[in-house]
Amino acid sequence: xxxxxxxxxxxxxxxxxxxxxxxxxxxxxxxxxxxxxxxxxxxxxxxxxxxxxxxxxxxxxxxxxxxxxxxxxxxxxxxxxxxxxxxxxxxxxxxxxxxxxxxxxxxxxxxxxxxxxxxxxxxxxxxxxxxxxxxxxxxxxxxxxxxxxxxxxxxxxxxxxxxxxxxxxxxxxxxxxxx
Length: 179
Ligand code: AMP
Hints:
Blueprint: E1 2-6, H1 13-24, E2 28-30, H2 31-38, H3 44-55, H4 61-72, E3 81-84, H5 90-95, E4 102-107, H6 110-119, H7 129-143, H8 145-152, E5 156-160, H9 165-175
Helix pairs in contact: 1-9
Bound molecules: adenosine monophosphate.
Adenosine monophosphate is lined by residues 9, 31-32, 35, 52-53, 56-59, 64, 85-86, 88, 92, 126, 135.
């Protein structure tokens, strides 16, 4: 099963992704985690990624697609994956069209997401208020069009992400036809 989670930062993608990963015994994969690891490297690419991430901007599509698809071609992902953060633009979605069975959109208002993030204790360098706001803004401009893209392909499951964790998990499973 190849699942993509879509939602703004603070919408619960990693929480729900972990639950789905355990339920189906397939790995959870976060593009943000991969980029955060690469950003620690003292290479030109590492420094560049760090700078882009800390400003909340997106890594260019060509670089993102090359890096992420290389990871996903590894043996541990051959039975599927739960993706968080990729694809994030129409270009990425088009190029990754054959890598997706279902997308799950966790719908949460900007206000609720910002409230949740404000309650977290984060030591992450890319979690400044301005980077978070930029990421939410880019979600609306670049990632929201993906909803229509997957809807047209009958691959979109929309979930009210403002319910409690267990209710959301159950609704996702029911939408996937799993008890
Ligand atoms: P995230 O943890 O998913 O919010 O990702 C953190 C940062 O990593 C983003 O703000 C981007 O700079 C970068 N990033 C992660 N996934 C992607 C992607 N699919 N396309 C472009 N940039 C990405």
